[in-house]
Amino acid sequence: MNKPKKPKKPRGKVRLLEGKCAACGARCESVCPVDGVTVNAAGEPVISLDRCIGCLKCVKICPAQALEVFFTVEEQKILSELARLEGEVEEAAAAVAEGADEIAAVLGSHRGVWVFVEQTEGKAATVSWELLGKGAELAGTLGVELCAMVLGDHVDHLAQEAFSYGATKVYLMDEPVLKNYRTEPYLKAILALVRKYKPEVILMGATGQGRDLAGAVATVLKTGLTADCTGLGIDADRNLLQTRPAFGGNIMATILCDRFRPQMATVRPHVMRLPVKNPEARGEIVREVLSLKEEDVLTKVLEIISDGKGTDHVDISGAEYIVSGGRGMMNRENFSILKELADELGGVVGASRSAVDAGWIPHDRQVGQTGKTVRPKIYIACGISGAIQHLVGMQDSDTIIAINRDKDAPIFEVAAYGLVGDLFQIVPELTRRVRELRTRK
Amino acid sequence: MLIVACIKQVPDTTQVKIDPVTNTLVRQGIPIIVNPYDTNALEESLRLRDRFGGRVVAVSMGPPNADVTLRKALALGVNEAVLLSDRAFGGADTLATSCVLSAAIAKLAEEDELTLVVCGKQTIDGDTAQVGPGIATRMGLTQLTLVDSVENLDLKARRIRVRRKLEGRHEIVEAPLPALLTVVREINRPRYPTVPHRLDSLKAEVKVWDNKVLNLDVNTIGLKGSPTCVRRIFSPEREKGEILGDALRDPAGATGLLVEKLVQKDLLPL
Fold it and tell me: Are residues A289 and A432 in the same domain?
């Protein structure tokens, strides 16, 4: 081995930009080829400069762009020396992506956007139709068909309904073994369809049933699945851009599954807009048979008990007007002024997590990441500061009105109209004026 | 009878704040807790063991310091705790995570008859609810998610009957063992650790298994085994709205302005 006469071009070292690490789960640590990154208890990387070889793997993998390369004093000296000696130094090319052809073949052989139509006792979940609305957009961008998967027993009518919400083709499996949802037969049905027809995108509702099924399907197919997407788009390479709240809804992450197909995503109810129904629409039905008999399925649904909700039950997710209260309501009794306004508007009362946790209002009224997602015509947030965990549940409302004493509250950033003041003065005044207008009409 | 409870240590995401200036997460001083749903999984595992016998093993995948979380499980009374920790496991998405957990559970099942795996319905940091189904599918266990009550466990017939909590309904389901349950918070109220258990837990051994023990193909675990990747993390940006009047000094006037706007845009149900 002959030693180079010139000093080697330094590659620099990596350092952490303060405050940018999102504690994503030790991606930097796991890519480091020299064990130079150790993640501390806070989830942030500690970089050993002695070990760092400046390969930049961690910089590239970091989703929060929290790592940067820098040159130590010694390295800077060498750099200027090199520059003096020979001017520009050429840099070596980056490593070639492994198995690129293979990946391209998989990606190229899958086409079409599919939506799973969730049904219980023959009735479809609305989220499935919402997904057809979004799916049509994606299929348009990709230049492919929008297809629905309808599984069940005596569910022909759902195929027609899928056409009316925008599907152009329905894959239908209609047999007794698919009557009540159970993971095993539904998993087998979907695997059979996906393996035969190879879609590139599969969307499902992020419901109890959808999440149960999607997790199983993605595991068998060994493909990516992104839960609770709030935004879906297509990038230049036909990849599905899946945006979802991360870290308990405090930040947003855009997730990609760029080496595998199909790309799978779930979306919560009311996140996407319900498309306009066209009862005249028709499409192609592809019938498939599942080779599975009832006696082969050992899991049995013995009973389905519908929640006979009491008179107090309100479905906030379908309401057109919502008046919500947060910590600023001070106590349970004060919610009555919100109720009065909501009654005047023909709406319902909602709440932030703080108000629910304080026991002022039941959990089924909670709006947000761990509560319901709503998109009413008007959302009035009273005494709600607007933690992202709340915002993700209501930010798509048509018009947001915020009433809060603190002018710096984040809720004002999503509001179309803000009132900085005392809600106990403003809300009754608003109720009075709306009532006045209504009685005049 | 072996019951495996899967737990995860998570940052208490309810206490995370965003720095308004830099628009980044403020994570200083955020406590690390046992994922709340997993405390119910632990509790249900312990109750079933106390009723039917057998033992409960708590399993967690995480960094070396996650042994703190497993000690909490020991303090609650689990028989054994195993930490799955290796650099190669890091950066995993749900598919790669279920790969490691399944391998560990399969290893535990070599010594004892696996009856149940119990998980929380989701974690509060990832919120995916995907790892449970991932484990069930990989191991061929009956998958029963969102369980809010275990109605019956028949060890002779190897059957379990549970109630599942779904949107607007409940389902009573009977299925063969071994099964994987994911549980909702309503299923039970977790116990507090007893003082003797807590003292014992400090001395107890938390087994640590790395990939030398599990011997998994590195292309199926950690970052390499994850089909999804994060392209970008960002704070949501929004359009600024309008602050109406001076509602602090003149609440009636500002409210009037609001009503005017709403009437103009025909937004009120008049």
Answer: no
Q: Among A260, A294, A328, give the residue marking a domain's end.
A: A294
Q: Is B15 on the interface with A (CB under 8 A)?
A: no
**R_g (Cα) of chain B, nearest Å:** 23
Are B228 and A218 in contact (CB < 8 Å)? no
What is the distance between the alpha carbons of residues B81 and B4, in angstroms, rounded to a whole number?
10
Same domain? A279 vs A153: yes
Q: Containing domain of residue A75, as a range?
A: 13-86
Amino acid (one-letter) located at A431: T
Q: What is the CATH number of the domain that holds A220?
A: 3.40.50.620
Complex prediction ipTM: 0.89
CA nearest neighbour of A186 among A159, A205, A210, A208: A210
CATH of the domain at A366: 3.40.50.1220
CATH number (domain holding residue A24): 3.30.70.20
Chain A nearest C-alpha distance from B161 (Å): 9
A121–B contact, CB cutoff 8 A: no
Instruction: From B16, B62, B63, select the one nearest B38 (Cα to Cα).
Output: B62
Four-residue CA torsion sign, A253, B238, B268, A328: positive
What dotted CATH number matches B2-220?
3.40.50.620
A259 within 8 A of A103, measured Cβ to Cβ? yes
Cβ separation of B173 and A41 shorter than 8 Å? no
Contact B120, B183 (CB under 8 A): yes
- Tell me if A283 is assigned to some domain: yes
Q: Structurally, how many domains does chain A consist of?
A: 3
Distance CA B57, CA A125 (A): 38
Show Cβ contacts of residue A59 under 8 Å, excluding neighbours closer than 6 positions: A14, A67, A68, A69
Quick one: A344 and A425 in the same domain? yes
Residues A147, A28 within the same domain: no
Q: Are residues A123 and A244 in the same domain?
A: yes
Q: Do A380 and A282 share a domain, yes or no?
A: no
CB proximity under 8 Å: B 176-205 to A: 176
Indicate the pTM of the whole model.
Answer: 0.79
Is any Cβ of chain A less than 8 angstroms from the Cβ of B264?
no
Contact between A207 and B167 using a beta-carbon 8 Å cutoff: yes
Interchain CB distance below 8 Å, A251 and B244: no
The answer to whether A298 contacts chain B (CB < 8 Å) is yes
Q: In chain A, what residues touch B119 (CB-CB under 8 Å)?
A: none
Residues 6+ apart with CB under 8 A from A262: A110, A114, A194, A198, A199, A200, A201, A202, A221, A223
A165 and A286 together in one domain = yes
Q: Say yes or no: A115 and A239 in one domain.
A: yes
Tens of each residue's pLDDT in chain B, 270 residues:
999 999 999 988 766 666 656 556 666 677 889 999 999 999 999 999 999 999 999 999 999 989 999 999 999 999 999 999 999 999 899 999 999 999 999 999 999 999 999 999 999 888 899 999 999 999 999 999 999 999 999 999 999 999 999 988 899 999 999 999 999 988 999 999 989 889 999 999 999 999 999 999 999 999 999 999 988 888 766 566 889 989 899 999 999 999 999 988 888 887
Residue located via tokens 């409870």:
B5
Peptide bond into B178 cis (omega under 30): yes
Distance from CA of B195 to the nearest CA of A (A): 26
Has residue A266 been placed in a domain? yes
CB A401 within 8 A of CB A378: yes
Task: Please state, in angstroms and rounded to a whole number, the distance separating the CA atoms of residues A411 and A374.
Answer: 16
Chain B residues with beta carbon closer than 8 angstroms to that of A400: 241
What six digits make up the tokens of A203? 């969307």
Q: Which string of DSSP letters, residue by residue, matches A395-419?
A: TTSSEEEEEES-TT-THHHH-SEEE
B57 CA: distance to closest CA in chain A (Å): 24
Indicate whether A367 belongs to any domain. yes
Residue A366 maps to a domain: yes
